[in-house]
Amino acid sequence: MSLTADRLRAIAWLVAAALLVLILQVHLLPALLAGLLVHELVHAMTPTLQRRMSSARGKLTAVVFLAVIIVGITAAAALGALAFFRSDASSLAALFGKMAQIIENARTTLPAWITGLLPDAGASTAGGLQAITVEWLRGHSAQVEAVGKEAGLGLAHVLVGMIIGAMVAVHEAVPGKAIGPLGAALAERVRRVADAFRRVVFAQVKISLLNTFLTAIYLAVVLPLLGVHLQLTKTLIGVTFFAGLLPVVGNLLSNTVIVVVSLAHSLPVAIGSLLFLVLVHKLEYFLNARIVGSQINAAAWELLTAMLLLEAIFGLPGVVAAPVIYAWVKDELKSAGLV
């Protein structure tokens, strides 16, 4: 019995959703994102090279060459990012440890009218905000160090994902035999997931680059000119970029880190950092609405809801994957005329 187009599409939806859940469950999200990144970069750059080629063999050679170059550059960028966060006395563990020390010493650096509002870490309410924050930062400092020890396995997954993405891009450049209706439906789902990834990630990279540029000027130029030299400046700039790849919430996370580190210098510097970052956050919120929101036709609250839900189910990988998955689901629903 032959299946209707609607049933084939429904089966393809279920298979694609199950695969995405499996990828999140077995911690292969970095490999998936790396593969999608290479695949989309190859597709974006291939037409420029192919216009200079006349034969089919020449066009295929161009695609293979481009795929190899992109895999190499992307792998080098990943290794560079890892080396960056392990330098500068810097590592993320050092940053977290510094934040814990700043908060723990807050009573000696803040005015009495502010410290009076903080819970007493040594009182019977030992679960107060200050004690909880210090304990959380120190606990997660150890977790970051553990993640660093497992970075080799993660990089291996990323490298394999990039190779798979390049192989898929090359395969698509070779004319092949026709596939069955279910295969075609599954291929369409893959195409839509890749398209959602391209729209969300490439738009968010633009926003994060602008946000990082403005923050770098503030931390590395404006503050030093005023005689203020914050510790771990390079790490703060790196955190700003990578956290900024997460829509909306990433900016809040990086802002919190910068304000806490600014507090180690003085309260006025912390207030100045907060005011500057609020302005940058307002700019990023506007850009999110104009760039990311327009790309997937979603408001900021929709993205936050999706990120909250997937974080509750899958943890941090759910937060990272939420914008892409939400963009894909919304695109599928729109194409079916359901929303």
Structure description:
- The protein has one domain.
- The chain is built from 14 helices and no strands.
- It is globular.
- The model is unreliable at 121-129 (pLDDT under 50).
- The relative contact order is 0.11.
- The longest helix has 45 residues, at 181-225.
- It has 339 residues and is mainly α.
Rg, please? 23 Å
C-alpha termini separation = 31 Å
Strand-pairing-aware structural class: mainly alpha
Unreliable sequence segments? 121-129
Structural topology:
Blueprint: H1 5-25, H2 29-50, H3 56-85, H4 92-104, H5 106-109, H6 112-115, H7 129-149, H8 151-172, H9 181-225, H10 233-244, H11 249-263, H12 267-296, H13 300-314, H14 316-335
Essential attributes:
339 residues, mainly alpha, 81% helix
Task: Summarize the structure in short.
This protein is an all-alpha fold and 339 residues long.
